[in-house]
Amino acid sequence: MFGKQIKPKIVIVGGGFAGLNAAQQLKSTRYDVTVIDPSPHIEWLPNIHEIISGVKKGDELRLNRNILVRRLGHRFLMNRAMEMTSSTVLLDNGMKVPFDVCIVATGSVNNTFGVDGADQFALPMKSVEQCQVIARKLHRASLSHRTTRVTVVGAGIEGVEAFGEVMRAYRHRPQFEFNIVDGSEHLLSRSPGHLDGKIRSHTDGYRVEYHLGKKVESVDHEGICLADGGAIESDITIWSTGAAPNGFLQRSYLTQANHEWASVNPYFQSEARENVFIIGDAANPEGMPLAKQAFHAIDMGKAAAQNVERLLTGKAMRAFQPSNKPQVVTFGDLDTFMLFKDFAVSSSVLGAAKEAIYTLGLLQMAPPRSAKDLLHSLDLLQRSARRVYLPTLNPLSLVNKLPKSKVFS
Ligand SMILES: Cc1cc2nc3c(=O)[nH]c(=O)nc-3n(C[C@H](O)[C@H](O)[C@H](O)COP(=O)(O)OP(=O)(O)OC[C@H]3O[C@@H](n4cnc5c(N)ncnc54)[C@H](O)[C@@H]3O)c2cc1C
Fold this sequence. Notes:
26 strands; five-stranded parallel β-sheet; single chain; FAD/NAD(P)-binding domain; globular; binds flavin-adenine dinucleotide
């Protein structure tokens, strides 16, 4: 099947964390690789919430996808893939891209769980542009003396990080009031360490109301209606209740229903087609419930590319072994948590860890190739380091902060 081609054709749909890492593994001397993505930039999503407070700017979190892909010797098509068959991907411009093997890495989309009005009146935070919209609205409100009620819906990791950034920038502004809503009884209810009380203690004395154990029924221009009949007046509603599968999966018959993640075997092969591999957020690996996290997506991209090579060369594929890395969660400038499997550590100095992950991650994704490149990377990193990293490492604040480190289990 694959022997007739001099260079097998590999198409990667989606050039995010998973797709680009797969592309990095595949040598252009051996494979004819095409990466398809409608967006010109890859975005460093784990830090986009920092745009809300202004400590990060959009350009510090974006890398040019065309440059990255072409550096690898591959082809980049800036298009949306509409659907695929077992041998071609159909693009939004009508072009059909043939493949021997396809890697699907289309990530996820914002999940409003069908809540009435959420798409229209609440602000998602899944991209740099969406976080910039939130930042602009908050900034505009800060210029007026009128009361502004800000509500974050969703108190998981993303929601708590967004709330932390809102608090970082606006907690001292008297015209702001803050709400956080979640169906669970606790903040970060699915994370280890019972951090609810610790986070709340940081907001004592500010105008913050917690609406926990409450389900949102609808959103409109005045605010939020709760399922228990209550209501929350809200001028700026930030929506952060998780992820849903990208519609490409169902349109390509890789799933049966729109709400399903694509089932794959431990080699990342689709259950529907053996020459299609699905990775990153889009994938639901058999018997391996994985959190939708960038570090898993990166590892999956590398592992799937190796299995594609093995399939093409007739070797036995290898089952994926997920790594167990701690996750760093920031609560603005007030605290940072490192979440391990069964416990969590809290310390403001850990903020530097998240910044270091960001710095290393960007450099790994786009290693500088020339002095000009290096200067550009250093300039971006210095700008962000000046705002986030250096204040945390200031020796005096370090002394103040160290005793506050604490383990939660
Ligand atoms: C606000 C936020 C904070 C996060 N924080 C963290 C964190 O602290 N730590 C962590 O590990 N993870 C974090 N994550 C999760 C992490 O970003 C995701 O798990 C990771 O991005 C998944 O990688 P992926 O490659 O599967 O998808 P993505 O990185 O989302 O890439 C998917 C790509 O597919 C493209 N695409 C979509 N549809 C099509 C189509 N039809 N045709 C072609 N291309 C298409 C998209 O444009 C996109 O570029 C966070 C996510 C968000 C939104």
